[in-house]
Amino acid sequence: MPRLPAAIVFDLDGTLIDSLPDIVAAANRLLAAEGRAPLAPDDVRPMIGDGAGRLVERVFAARGGLPGPSLDPYLARFVAEYEPRSAELTRPFPGVAATLGQLRRQGCRLGLATNKPSRATREVLAAFDLTDLFEAVVGGDEAPALKPDPRHVSAVLDLLGTPPDAAAFVGDSYNDVTAAHAAGLPCVLVSFGYTRIPVGDLGAEAVIDDFADLPAALAGLFATTE
To answer: Are 108 and 75 in the same domain?
Structure first.
C-alpha cells in the first residue's frame, strides 16, 4: 500500500513561494542607486536560485557590470534592501500552506534547504505562518555549501534525524534535483518555478503542476506492497 516519506526537504523560492516580485524590486533599487536602468521580472527570473551573491553578479552583468572591483559592498546593499521587505509582494503558491499542514498531520517531518539568506528565509516563513511547519531550516549562509552541493540537503536531514532512503526532496530547479540525487533522495519538481532548464529535462522522479498534488506524487514514489 502507498506510504509517505518520513521526512521531506523543500526548496523555498519558486517552490513554496513566488518571491520574484520582491527580489526584482530590491534588485532595481540597487541598480537605481548606481544610475542603472531597471530589469523586468522576466530578466530576473532566471537569475534566481544560486544564492544572493550570484544574483547580484547577474543583475549588474545585465546592466554593464559591477560598478566597483568587489562584489561585497553591492551584495551587502542588496541584502539590506531585500531582507526587511522580503514579504511585501511575495506570496506562497496556491495550496502550499494547506498541503504542508496535511503532510505534517500525516506524520511527515518537514525541512527546508534554501540558498536564500537565512534572515530573509525566516522573515518570509513568519510572514505567512509557515515557521512552525518546519523542524529544520538551513539557509544559504548557514549551509556547509550551497545547492547543488548535496551537503546542504544532508545538513537538513541530519537535523531531522532521517536517513536519505526515508526522505524525499521537493524543488523547482537543476540545483534541487542535482543536490537531492547526490544526497540519495528522490526528487519531485514543481512546474511553475524559476528553472532555467525545462523542468521535464531535469530528471526528477515526478513533476507536479499543482502543489496540492504533492502528497499523491510522494505516495507514488514510496509505494510498497506490504
So the answer is: no
Report the chain's terminal Cα–Cα distance, integer Å.
6
DSSP helix/strand/coil, 183: helix
* Cell 496556491, located at residue: 94
User: 62 and 11 in one domain?
Assistant: no
Has 11 been annotated as catalytic? yes
- 2 lies in a domain? no
Total-model pTM: 0.95
Share of the chain above pLDDT 90, in %: 96
131 pLDDT above the threshold of 80: yes
Residue range of the domain that includes 102:
7-19+90-221
Tell me the residue length of the chain.
226
Neighbour count for residue 41 (Cβ, 10 Å): 11
Asked if 166 and 6 count as a contact pair (C-beta separation under 8 A), the reply is yes
Q: Which entry of 11, 50, 172, 176 is annotated as an active-site residue?
A: 11
- pLDDT 10s digits, 160-200: 999 999 999 999 999 999 999 999 999 999 999 999 999 99
pLDDT digits (tens, 9 = 90+) for 197-218: 999 999 999 999 999 999 999 9
Q: What total of structural domains would you count in the chain?
A: 2
Is 226 within a domain?
A: no
Q: Do the Cβ atoms of 157 and 111 come closer than 8 Å?
A: yes
Question: Where residue 179 sits, what CATH number does that domain have?
Answer: 3.40.50.1000
Same domain, 127 and 53: no
Q: Is 174 left (phi over 0), alpha (psi -120 to 50) or beta?
A: alpha
